[in-house]
Amino acid sequence: MMATTSSDFLPTVNSEVAALGTFIALLESEQRMLIAGEVDGLLELVGQKNGLAAELAALASRRTRLLAASGLASDRAGVLAWFDAYPGETRARAAWASLLTLASQARELNRVNGELIQVRMRSNAQALEILLSSNTSASLYGPDGQSTPVGGSRISDSA
Q1: Cα–Cα distance between 42 and 21 in angstroms, integer?
Q2: Which pTM value belongs to this model?
Q3: What is the pLDDT of residues 52-70, one digit of tens each?
């Protein structure tokens, strides 16, 4: 017996579409910040992303419960079975198609952002390695934090 109707399913999927759209906007902002090297705002953005991720998880859980109430699996096959049971629900079908498209877009943005983060981390690690390198005789900075001459030689007036 199909217990879930479009009046239950459609608002949930529409809410997922809206939240995922906002999540994508945050991922795009994150990408711009990473490319520009503007890391100061990333911490706040991560907090916003985490909040939206929790909201998306709650909405997906609600969709899972709605499908389970109809005796259906929570995967794509379950959603397709729901559409088969309600062939006239074209708005729900369109919302689901939008959700799948947005999910694919979010996955790709997240992948690219992850690569950008890895590049930035490698660059930072290389810069630190150069600054902290002890295998050269020339030191960039002395113990007092001041730069030292490359040869380390100083003029002495005690001769």
Answers
A1: 19
A2: 0.76
A3: 999 999 999 999 999 999 8
